[in-house]
Amino acid sequence: MESKIYILVVEDEPEVLDSIVRDITEFEDHFNVEMTDTAEEAEEIIDQILEEEEMIGLILCDHVLPGKNGVDLLIEMQNDEKTKPTKKVLITGQAGLEETVKAVNEADLKHYIAKPWEKSDLVDITRKLLTDYVIEHVKDPLPYMQVLDAEKIAEHLRTGRQITDQ
User: Fold this and answer.
1) Which CATH number fits domain 5-117: 3.40.50.10140, 3.90.79.10, 3.40.50.2300, 2.20.25.110?
2) Any alpha helices (H) in 24-146, and if so which ranges?
């Protein structure tokens, strides 16, 4: 495979953070999962990942965090060319309509998940968004077929650029 693709989980409640990570464990063989409990630490992790010329495919971010809130972090990522392609998901039980609309309009929010969530919903959303990310940013998506949406990747390979065209 080429560059590593990361999933970044930002959540300040340890039990909730553990639950999110546990729910998405099936992706860990193909994606590195990084966890943090503040937006500021998330920014440091993002910088480290980008310095290593790796990619951040997905961020699952709480809204209410100590210090900077999650919506502001997602907006900053959207405004940075290096993290703009990252698929962004807000997982929260406390964002009001105004904050949610701000995230949708300014952070290109791909999904909003209300707490508590269903594991199957989180897994389905993660699979869909990572499939889209891989199709858009990875030259050879074949290694990801066993964990992502194989049908969508196969369709992309049939109708789009073929691996032999590289």
Assistant:
1) 3.40.50.2300
2) 39-51, 70-79, 97-107, 119-137
User: What would the two tokens of residue 121 be?
Assistant: 């919903």
Give tens-digit pLDDT for 96-127. 667 777 777 788 888 889 889 999 999 999 99
Is the pTM above the cut of 0.70? yes
Quick: pLDDT tens for 112-165: 898 899 999 999 999 999 999 999 999 999 999 999 999 999 999 998 754 444
Residue spans per domain, the chain = 5-117
